[in-house]
Amino acid sequence: MEKYDIIIIGAGPGGLTAGIYAGRQGTKTLIIDRDLAGGLGREVPEMENYPGFDNISGLELIEKMKSQATKNCRLHEMEEVTEIASNDTEFRFTVTTNKDQYQAKSIILATGSSHRHLDAKGEEEFKGKGISYCATCDGFFFVGRDILMVGGGNSALQEALYLKNLGANVTVVHRRDEFRAQKHLQNQIKEKEIPSILNATVEEIKGDLLVESVVLKDTQTGQTKEIPTNGVFISVGYIPHTELAKQLNVNLDESGHIIIDKNQKTNVDYVYAIGDVCVGLKQWVVACGEGAVAATSAFTDLQNQL
What we know:
The chain is an alpha/beta fold. It has two domains: 2-114 and 238-304, FAD/NAD(P)-binding domain, CATH 3.50.50; 117-234, 3-Layer(bba) Sandwich (FAD/NAD(P)-binding domain), CATH 3.50.50.60. It is built from seven helices and 17 strands. α1 (13-24) runs parallel beside α2 (58-69).
């Protein structure tokens, strides 16, 4: 059974950064991810607020980070962690995956999150048949077609702009009377003349083999209307992946996110957490900063036990 000083579970921006820092500090480190490195970061069409780049796609930045991380630690992609058990030995944790088993002195949880669904009638039925949660994955199929982008945060508006630039006829639907996204994104939506429908929720998605229309409900009047559309892109938040945290009895807040201190420590000794699975601002640069802090905290704690 391979033994490591630190095992990082999740290879998103935070996990990769933690791997860079942990490896450079001289610790034997392994990153494990059940998918390809990058997580939801791979889906970001373009960023204009990541330091050092005027504009860069999530996929491009992930590839740069992955290359840097693998110079400093090991990375196992497409390997899912199924269980973490605590031990009364120097290597406190046994990490079981669908391929192997490892031991570690410290664990960094960077398990991320997944797309939140609308739970609207027809959503499950038309998934992949006109419904998408990833503009960069599926936007090309909707060039020249009418689509709705549901959501009002940064991700929703970023993806709406991306779809517009591809050549799709996109309209943004948001349940509130104003967007929650940053002002510069709202300004770009206006500049691109992307129409919006505010104070509206998606009640039903209809069609035959593919999406053909959506029933919207006015949140103020309660009235409904059906509008034709070829597709629905959904960006209404994320659900944190805390299954492994629960196995370790890590404390969560009311929203289901991991509670951490300023050093990214959880309530369980030698267990740290970073990124979207934690309480805090959901931004790429924040996850990277948290990864650096967690790796340094883990290194310091391991040194102090010697």
